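Hi R.,

Here's the chain you asked about this morning:
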Amino acid sequence: MAANWTAFVAGNVLTAAQLNGVVDNFADIAIFNETQSSGTNGGASTTGSYIKRTLNTTVINNITGCSIASSVITLPAGTYQIAALCPTFATNVNRARLYDTTNSAVLVQGQNCSAASGNNVFNSAPVTGSFTLAGSTNIELQHRFQTAQATNGLGGACSFGDDEVYAEIMIRRLA
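And here is the predicted structure, written out as tokens:
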């Protein structure tokens, strides 16, 4: 078995150029989320319009020129791919999106989602896609709900003793 493993490893060693390519692919990434202390709910959902989701924690940010303040992400010019999840509880139909507040435009519209209020259902509204920015732009992760839910419409606490994590976005710079 050891000889087979050695042959496998020897035949699959990455060259320095390949390794640099892999490292480069992961260098331009940012992940932000909402982190609360154990037992803290995600907050109240409201109806009528999109609301900004809280993003208060930087997990990683290796995108030069990218920053976050008051849940608003600033990105430099470039092409990006995003994946985001926005939890919800008992709010019926809902949808999240990525919104460009600099130019008042929807960058990525999320999928329709439902968290039935009569059944006390948790769900997460996904937002995935790509977009190109011509210049430095402020963006927000936003969410809209059919039904308002006090205290935990934006996600309910597990209260397991570790941090509660709610909305999360991963941004990858493609070019």
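One quick note: The chain has a mean pLDDT of 88.

Cheers,
M.
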